[in-house]
Amino acid sequence: MGQAIDALREFTEPGRWPERRPGRFAARLVEVHRDGDPLASLRDAALNGAGHEFRAIGLLGLADDEGVRLNGGRPGAAEGPDAFRAALAGYGAAHPVALHGLPVPVIDLGDVVAADDLHATHERVSGAVTAALELGLLPVAIGGGHDLTFPEVRAVIDTLIRPTGRTLHGIYFDAHLDVREDDGSGMPFRRLLEYGGIDRLSLFGFDPLSNTPAHLDWFRAHGGELAEFAPGNWPRSPAQFVSICLDVIDMAQAPGVSAPHPAGWPAQRIADYAEAAGRSSAVCCFDLMELCPAHDEHGRTARLAAHLFLRFLTGVAQRGR
């Protein structure tokens, strides 16, 4: 355990929080950089995900937007984890009705320290997620460019999936396919399919005005589907990751994203899916990506991201029961 903690701290720095009042959910979070060894006092694993037992949920900031810049999007998502923490600090009761019975604590693992090169940053993300998994933590990431989902899930494949001889079903919510050839925030799911370990991808929120026929053809030819199942009819594949790009939400409710969507999903709809993801015992990795506070009027996208995180935990609490 000591080596994994050292590796985690090597790749991360403490997250930046405002003052947290005892009455808010954020006050329950333990910080791995500031509280000695919070993992040493964890009880036995109490949360099943994709056939693996987890002792806690590890919140990890992916504070980098180089991929967004390379993709021509609006920069600023590097500040997403900070904005998320600030919003969570002022939202959600410490012990809300919805989270009664949450089987594991939430530990803030800090932010991955970005490198000068996109690929070097990706290596650090994979290293931090690998360390979290070795410590028995289910990773929940906040970003940051969507390209960072690739190294996050790559670590899950290498640590949890390939050693068992299984494959992973990816479920993501995004206006974009994100299967571009070039490096940038528009390439993570192409890289994952090329890397191997993914048996299929299910995409919600596809915008036909923002994607090319060539990319859609490539996506379908490599196991991708434009999904339609309802939150209450979540698929039963044995191992899954779930990624929500906040640009799937209508820009009237989520203006603070890298690529705003003028006709996206309503917030309530995506929140129902976030809870369904938490409820599924197949889900072993979850993220919320491309929160861009520089364009977030009154911080409402950050507050929505905090809500989606808590809705995911609401589902996890039901999984625990």
Please sum up the structure shown.
With 321 residues, the protein is of the alpha/beta class. The chain is built from 9 helices and 12 strands. Strands 1, 2, 5, 6, 7, 8, 9, 10, 11 and 12 form a 10-stranded mixed sheet that branches. The protein has a two-stranded antiparallel ribbon with strand order 3-4.
Kindly identify the CATH topology: Arginase, Chain A
What is the arithmetic mean of pLDDT? 95
At the first level of CATH, what is the class?
Answer: Alpha Beta
Order of helices and strands: HEEEEEHHEHEHEHEHEEHEH
How many structural domains can be distinguished in the coordinates?
Answer: 1
DSSP helical segment count: 9
- Strand segment count: 12
User: How much helix is in the residues?
Assistant: 25-40%
Rg result: 18 Å
Distance between the termini: 28 Å
Q: CATH homologous superfamily, by name?
A: Ureohydrolase domain
Shape label: globular
> Beta-strand percentage?
15-25%
User: How many strands, which pairing sense, and closed or not: the largest β-sheet?
Assistant: 10 strands, mixed
CATH architecture: 3-Layer(aba) Sandwich
Poorly predicted tracts of residues: none
Structural class: alpha/beta
Question: Which features does this protein show?
Answer:
Arginase, Chain A, two-stranded antiparallel sheet, 19% strand, 9 helices
Provide a descriptive summary of the structure in words.
Helices cover 33% and strands 19% of the residues. The chain is of the alpha/beta class. The chain has one domain: 3-Layer(aba) Sandwich (Arginase, Chain A). The strands form two sheets. Strands 1, 2, 5, 6, 7, 8, 9, 10, 11 and 12 form a ten-stranded mixed beta sheet that branches. A two-stranded antiparallel ribbon has the order 3-4. The model has no long low-confidence stretch (mean pLDDT 95).
